[in-house]
Write a structure and sequence with these properties.
Helix content: 10-25%
Organism: Plicaturopsis crispa FD-325 SS-3
Largest sheet: 8 strands, parallel, barrel
Radius of gyration: 23 Å
CATH superfamily of the largest domain: Glycosidases
Bound molecules: 2-acetamido-2-deoxy-beta-D-glucopyranose
Strand order of the largest sheet: 3-4-8-9-10-11-12-13
Number of helices: 12
InterPro entries: GH, GH79_Enzymes, GlcAase_C
Keywords: Signal
Pfam family, one: Glyco_hydro_79C
Protein name: Unplaced genomic scaffold PLICRscaffold_18, whole genome shotgun sequence
Number of strands: 26
Distance between the termini: 24 Å
Structural class: alpha/beta
Length: 523
């Protein structure tokens, strides 16, 4: 059945379209097995101690990470570093850290530190992460000071060798040498002759030293992340993974320990927002083109036997666009973005977080000024999650706790609706549908699409449980519920009664503009 004309339910004034969707019951052979930590995090390290807690753990951040572990059995991976990684030095006489920040502005209310000096306590706070967390830590390359990188590495190794960290099974999996080295000419870290050959030569010198300090070799657990570039030429010239390979990144003994290639990506840079910008972010086609543009890099990386991930990503740079990155619509963007990434060979997506950044999923510290324009808040804002956090929860629930769930993008003939199917042991378990048409404040008529499900192979399921992400308006910044429950709580733990519906599959399911449904199939 395909209804070309919308029909109107008079009682609600809702325009309903119908859409046929067929879902394979057995995992298609090309459906990748997806990491339970698909949605992971990158933390700007200048305020890492706000996340971890210095003398005792930050319970809010811990809970926000641990919620995901409770669902999938695996905590999110944490990469610590980013811009401030290249402004960090080590001083054994400092207990935790000393940090200098530039003046805040209306567009950047929470700027990155210009200078950070850390001691052993900075790194040993990693013990405060959930047990079993995998960590990637960045060391300074931007300042071309080998001693800084060496001392940081030694302190990192010491932290992970401590009894507290070992007992918690928190592991150092990768060291990253330098953040976004492709931008070093722009930010003054290198002169105008900086190029990929110089990058590889200097990186190799640093890596030899860091390898010795951290015991990185063919038998070690800890390996190197390579690249971590802000952009990519997607060719074998300039800064790209394939260009770095060509210039010999992998050819030295240390380079042979690069096992993972990191790409950073933002969908654009906007320091002011609008409803139109939010819709652009959410749009199915732009999510796909943003990500699939990296396909040449992913192919080249896999051809070397290496994994590829988005080591730092989020919606829009400038720490997010106000009224866009901090909204409920951004949750739908993040959900589709992470799931689509899994389909093109991206191992994990690390959503970048700072303190007070507009695009954060988690705000783990009390904020005293507005994230939108830096104006003082008359009442400080206690730690809280932002709407995009729900995307991490939904991905976790959709993946489940099998540890080896396969994900397959369902072909949906609609420019606004995306769908993904989830398989355990090769059998369909769940499906997620996302309606990314932005229903913005001021709009009155909210259309809904009636999904008519059919199964392409195997025996069909009779019933399904329907769980909804309910959003007032795409540009709302709170009040989102997931199956009737909220994570907008003072401790980041879920609250409220679960509200799901059980329905026959044959009845189909409605999905409104700016809504997500998770279907769990039953016999
Ligand atoms: C950073 O701060 C430290 C400690 O105050 C100081 O010794 C160092 O010179 C500063 N580095 C830069 C690059 O400004
Ligand atoms: C690494 O660099 C530090 C600081 O420059 C130096 O003291 C150390 O000897 C170097 N290690 C190796 C193995 O070259
Ligand atoms: C490099 O880092 C070391 C270790 O902190 C520091 O003593 C030294 O002054 C730094 N060198 C420069 C040129 O900043
Ligand atoms: C850039 O720096 C390198 C290494 O320090 C130096 O050899 C080169 O002469 C410099 N080039 C320019 C154009 O300043
Ligand atoms: C990425 O998405 C943004 C909208 O968020 C769009 O403006 C931009 O053109 C897209 N880039 C690509 C390469 O598709
Ligand atoms: C806000 O102020 C409180 C009280 O002075 C302080 O503890 C907290 O760290 C401040 N928040 C940030 C993000 O600086
Ligand atoms: C996709 O939908 C359009 C209408 O939106 C229709 O014209 C077209 O035939 C559909 N394609 C398939 C393969 O169903």
């Amino acid at each position: 059945m395909f209804l070309l004309a919308p029909f109107v339910l008079a009682a609600y004034g809702v325009v309903v379209f119908a859409l046929d969707v067929s879902v394979p019951v057995s995992a298609p052979s090309k459906a990748p097995t997806v990491s339970p930590a698909l949605v992971s995090f990158s933390i700007e390290q200048d305020r890492w101690l706000d996340w971890a807690g210095s003398t005792s753990r930050n319970e809010f951040a811990y809970n926000a990470f641990n919620n995901l572990k409770e669902i999938t059995g695996t905590p999110p991976w944490i990469r610590i570093g980013a811009d401030s990684e290249d402004h960090t030095n080590f001083n054994p006489r400092i207990q935790f850290s000393q940090t200098k920040f530039p003046a805040e502005t209306a567009t950047v209310p929470y700027p990155e530190a210009s200078n950070i000096t850390v001691g052993d306590g900075f790194y040993s706070a990693v013990a405060h992460l959930p047990p079993g967390t995998h960590v990637i830590w960045g060391v300074n390359f931007g300042q071309a000071n080998l001693t800084a990188a060496y001392l940081e590495t030694r302190s990192i190794v010491k932290a992970f060798d401590s009894p507290a960290v070992r007992e918690a099974g928190i592991t150092l999996d990768f060291i990253e040498i330098g953040n976004e080295a492709d931008l070093y000419i722009n930010n003054g870290a290198r002169n105008s002759s900086w190029n990929i050959q110089q990058y590889v030569a200097q990186w190799t010198t640093f890596a030899a030293n860091v390898s010795a300090a951290a015991g990185i070799n063919a038998d070690s657990r800890v390996k190197f992340v390579g690249a971590a570039f802000a952009e990519s030429t997607r060719t074998t010239s300039g800064f790209s993974p394939q260009s770095a390979f060509k210039a010999g990144l992998l050819d030295s003994p240390s380079g042979a320990q690069v096992k993972l290639i990191s790409q950073h990506h933002y969908s654009g840079s906007f320091c002011s927002g609008s409803g139109g910008l939010l819709q652009n972010l959410m749009t199915k086609a732009t999510i796909r083109s943003n990500l699939s543009s990296f396909s040449p890099d992913i192919t080249a990386t896999h051809a070397k036997g290496l994994s590829y991930f988005l080591g730092e990503t989020n919606s829009y740079s400038c720490h997010g666009a106000p009224g866009v990155s901090n909204t409920a619509g951004a949750a739908l963007w993040a959900l589709d973005y992470a799931l689509y990434s899994s389909q093109i060979g991206v191992e994990r997506t690390h959503f970048h977080e700072g303190i007070g950044y507009k695009y954060n999923l988690i705000q783990p510290a009390t904020l005293n000024r507005s994230i939108l324009d830096g104006s003082p808040l008359s009442t400080p804002l206690a730690p809280h999650i932002q709407p995009a956090y729900y995307s991490a929860i939904i991905v976790a629930e959709a993946l489940g706790d099998s540890g080896s769930t396969q994900v397959y993008e369902i072909s949906v003939n609609n420019t606004r609706i995306a769908g993904y199917a989830f398989y355990e042991g090769g059998s369909l378990q769940r499906a997620v549908f996302i309606n990314s048409l932005a229903f913005l404040k001021g709009a009155t008529s909210r259309s809904s699409t009636h999904l008519l499900l059919s199964f392409t192979d195997g025996s069909a399921f009779a019933t399904m449980t329907i769980k909804r992400l309910k959003i007032g308006y795409a540009d709302d910044t709170s009040g989102v519920t997931w199956g009737g429950q909220t994570y907008e709580t003072s401790d980041a733990k879920v609250s409220g009664d679960l509200d799901v519906q059980v329905a026959p599959v044959s009845a189909g399911v409605d999905i409104a503009e700016t809504e997500v449904v998770l279907l769990t199939f039953g016999s």
